[in-house]
Every structure is written in C-alpha cells, then in structure tokens.
Amino acid sequence: MYPDTPIFAYPEYQKYAKVGEVDFTNGSREEFIMIQTMLIMMGVGLFAGIAGAILGLGGGIIITPVLTLMMGLDIKYAIGASIIAVIATSSGSTIAYLKDEVLNLRVAMFLEIATTIGGIAGALLTGVLDPKYLYLLFGALLVFSGWNMWRKLRRGQEALNNVKADPIATKLKLNGSYFDKAEFKRVDYQVEQVPQGFLVMLGAGLASGMLGIGSGAFKVTAMDTFMKMPLKPSSATSNLMMGVTAAASATVYFFNGSILPNIAVPLALGILVGAVIGSRIMQVLPARVIRMIFIPVILFIGLQMLYKGIIGG
Amino acid sequence: MDNQSHQNSATENEMDHIEVIIGRILQIGVVVAAIIMLFGLILLLVHDGNGGYPVGHQPTTISAIAAGTVALKPYAVMMVGMFCLILTPVLRVVVSIYAFYKEHDTLYVWITTTVLIILCISFIIGHTV
C-alpha cells in the first residue's frame, strides 16, 4: 500500500467512503443550505406580503426576480412559487380586510366573472395570439394608469360622490363605503363606468392568463382608474380577486410539479404573516401615501411590459 | 333622501353580516392551511432537510400525497398544506354564495354562482390542455 495513494482509490473502500462522505459533509452542508434557503424565503415572503397587501399586487414583481436572479431557480419553479405567493397574499390580507370591511365584495364578485372568463380565453388563445401585442397594449394601459394616478394625487380627491349616481352601479349595488383609519371617518363612494371596468378586467384576465404577470396591477387599474373607486377599497378588492383567479391555475402547477414545497412553503408562511401585517399598515396609511408608492411601481411594471413588447416578448 | 339613506344602511348591515361570516370561515381555513404547512416544515427540519423522496422529487398525485402524509413524509405534508391554501379562495366563493343567499340577494347569488361555475370550467380546461 502506497502511503500517498488516497484511500478512495481502492475499490473496496470506494463504496464505503462515498456513503460516509454523503452522510458527513453533504448531510450537514445540505442542511445548512436548506435552513438558509428557508430563512431567506420567509424573509422575502414577509416583505412581499407586506408590500403586496398594501398595494393590492400579487408580489410577483418582488418574488420572481429574487428566485430567478438571486437564487438561480428555474423560471418554471419561480412561476409556481409566484402563484402560491399570490394566493397567500390574497388569503392573508383578506382575513384581516373582511373584518375591517374595506373590501367591496359585490364589486369583487361582479368583476371576477370578467377576469375568470378572460383567464380561460387567455389559456385557449396561447399560441394563437402574439403576446407581443398584449405586452404593448397592457404596458401602455399601465403607464396611462400611472399618469392618471399622478393626476388623481395632485387633485387630491379620493372618493367619487356625484349628485346623480351611475345607474348601472346602483342597479348592481356596487357603491360602497369604508371606514378610513387614517382619516378617522367613514368614506362613502360611488362607482361609475362599470362596462369599461368590466372590459378592462376581461382584458386583464386574458393578459395575466397568457403572460402570467400583472394580475394585481390590472385589477387596481380597472377599479381605481376606470371605475373611480378610492384606492384603499380598490387595493383590498384586488387582493381578494387575485386569489380567486390564481386558484384555478394553481392546481395545474400543483399537479405538474412546478410548485416546490421546500421553496413555496416557507415563502407562503412568510407571506401570510406579512400580508396580515401589511393590511393593518394599509388601513392606517393615508391613501395619498399608498398612491405615491403605487405610481412608480405601476410605471415600472408598465414600462417593463412595453420593453418586452418592443424587443418581441 | 331619507328613504335612500335608510336603504343604504340596510345594505350596509347586510354586508357587515356577510363579511363577518365569511371572515370567520376564511380565517379558520387559512389558519388550518398555515398550521399544516408549518407542521410539514418542522418535519423537514427534524428529518435534516430530507423531504422523504429522492432529491428533486416530490409527490404530485393525490394518491402519492395521501400515502406520504400517512407516513408523515415532510414533502407530502407540505403539499397537503399548500393544497389547503389553494382551496381557501374557492372556499371564499362558496361561502359568499351561501351568505348572499342568507341575505336574500338573489342577483348576487347568481353572480357568485356564475363565478364558481367559470372557476370549475377553467379548472377542467387547465387539466386537459
């Protein structure tokens, strides 16, 4: 036996040594990486949950880049995790919202018809419709929405109170009220341009079904920009709707193995906690402040979509 | 005007009532999902990060998840927790139908039922396409 020949070179030791190696080095290293990943996922989730619940967005814009760029995860698994994230944000924030009645359940259910039909159309039209035009169209819509929000911010008017209420909104009982914890008063508001809002939601369902993004941004746009709902109920209602829309596609990802439990579970737990905290923060934040955070975010998503449309998706 | 404000407050009380029912059931649903996920995560930690399946694999069929859960395999339990989480929005729609029915709001019983039917259709399409 030559002293400087590694013990692994001997066939009879090879098997044994390998087993030992896995048990010792890989075992503890894997465990370290696992705990590290778990903590990162929980932290990212907590942040995404807080932000998502305040803005009424799914949190995909935070989660997808973190998972793909930072963690090097395949886009397929990143999308799977994002879908779970959307549902966690939605459910986490609505368990707080429903008790605090910011959300407009009738608007949510009425518009949900449009998003789900749009979602089906999107799934069926994949491959038929060039996503390039959708990116351009909806990117432009979000930029327009951002500009519109900027005008709303400068005007400073949140709730719409016309002398004559919109007949369709009245018939569908969509007008509502909520208690604003920042202003310490009940805000009554009216909804208008119901057909336009419904149409935008139809398109939003189609686009987010086909492109897999912007589920929350389009919803807030339809309610805030087109139907003239105040931002807080828009955000809360968007949060409720996102979860319902995502649930249908989530089962597909669940059964085809795109949702990795070791990634998605700590992420979801972090988000649930974050979303409960976020919805509490949202209620006491002045609507103006939420709008100020919202405008750059929506402009960023819109410009990103326009860019994708121009370079060809 | 009086009549209208009276009507408004009636709708408001109605909504309050619906929201409390839905809120409670949803809270229970979400908490149950979170507890199962947390339990799975603790199992994973106890098993030193071994999910109970070969590396890169996880159970994806109902039977495999059920069998794994009975055997207390971490990944299987975590999948059950996530499935419960996915069901919470569907639960919300179902409960809303019941709540609108209790409030005698026929229009919204229909609207919400339509949402549920479309959800079922998209579920079927998603699993066949």
From TrEMBL, chain A:
Which compartment or compartments is the protein found in? Cell membrane
Q: Name one Pfam family in it.
A: TauE
| Annotated keywords | Cell membrane, Membrane, Transmembrane, Transmembrane helix, Transport
As for membrane topology, the entry says: Multi-pass membrane protein
The signal peptide annotation in the UniProt record is: none
Transmembrane ranges? 39-63, 75-98, 105-127, 133-150, 198-218, 238-256, 263-283, 289-307
Q: Which GO terms describe its cellular component?
A: plasma membrane
**What does the sequence similarity comment in the record state about its family?**
Belongs to the 4-toluene sulfonate uptake permease (TSUP) (TC 2.A.102) family.
Any idea what this protein is called? Probable membrane transporter protein
Q: Which organism is it from?
A: Secundilactobacillus silagei JCM 19001
TrEMBL record, chain B:
Q: Which UniProt keywords apply?
A: Membrane, Transmembrane, Transmembrane helix
What the entry lists under InterPro entries is as follows:
DUF1634
Q: Which residues cross the membrane?
A: 21-46, 75-95, 107-126
What this protein is called in its record is Membrane protein
Q: Which organism is it from?
A: Secundilactobacillus silagei JCM 19001
